[in-house]
Amino acid sequence: MKTYFRQRLLLLLPTLVGMTALVFALGFISPSDPAAVIMTMDGVTAPSPEEIAAKRVELGLDRPYAVQYAAWLGGVLRGDWGVSFITGKNVLQELLQALPVTLSLAGMALLWVILLSVPLGAVMAVYRHGAAERWLTLLSIALTSLPSFWLAIVLMQILCENLRIFPTSGYGTVRHLLLPGLVLGAGTIGAVMRLQRDALTDVLAENYILTARAKGLPLFYIVYRHALRNAFIATATMLGNYAGALLGGAAIIELIFALPGLGTLALTAVQARDYPMIQGYVLMVGCMMILVNMCVDVFYVMLKPNLRLGDGQND
């Protein structure tokens, strides 16, 4: 296990370096000049080309890409992620203030996924070719097909405005996260339901399951005690991959439900062409997704140790 973990850490470093290079390149491939954006923030000033050129020199934008990248990366490592064009505040501080909201929302979505998709997928596998399986398959297709913004608006109208079960917006309690988390995880719930069905169906056809059934053990006990653990290996991998996607895909949901998270911050930065904030957002979300994927790989090996790469011994 230690050897596998060391291999994953060695692969982590070049991945992070490559990601930072791509993040920094956002400032170069953007359609606008950051110097011009800063000088026209008030919507009234019309700077001359000479003034813009002087501002570029002040910001260090006239230097070669490699020099700028090295200076920017050094600042990132020191905790200096730049200053927002809009607020004038430190980018890292603003991102860290919004991070708990996004993590809470993604965590709630992942909780909904586990609580709903795993048992529903098990029902689909146990009652294969039955009415329950057909209806649940239809539900899973609908969840993966419906746009999240449309589902959010419909559920907000029904559950918030009409029935007043959940608050329509805001952040501060678990109730504020229940509905946004469900909407964010809806597509993942549908996909994981079908994956869990297929994985559990394969496991239920194994010889040791057939032997357990021949002994007269209750089907519920067999599924819960023996089958779910092995079937959950593929599901856990997919959940880990979707956990990173939930972090990056929360922007629209945060905007609809007025949650002050990373997504709302990023959308505001995009609208205002706040390049330091955009770069900081991409960098933070990218680092979290890389970390999540590494944790998924390690967890996958913990569930099934014989999958360790180059594992000829148990160290």
What does this structure look like?
With 315 residues, this protein is mostly helical. Residues 309-315 have low confidence and may be disordered. The protein has helices at 2-29, 34-39, 49-59, 65-78, 91-126, 131-145, 148-162, 175-204, 207-214, 219-248, 251-256, 262-272, 275-303. The protein is 76% helix and 0% strand. It starts with a helix and ends in a 12-residue tail after the last helix. It has a domain at 100-261: Orthogonal Bundle (MetI-like fold), CATH 1.10.3720.10. The longest helix is centred in the middle third of the chain and has 36 residues, at 91-126.
Supply database-style keywords.
elongated, 76% helix, MetI-like fold, 315 residues, 13 helices, disordered C terminus, mainly alpha, single chain
Topology of this protein?
Elements: H1 2-29, H2 34-39, H3 49-59, H4 65-78, H5 91-126, H6 131-145, H7 148-162, H8 175-204, H9 207-214, H10 219-248, H11 251-256, H12 262-272, H13 275-303
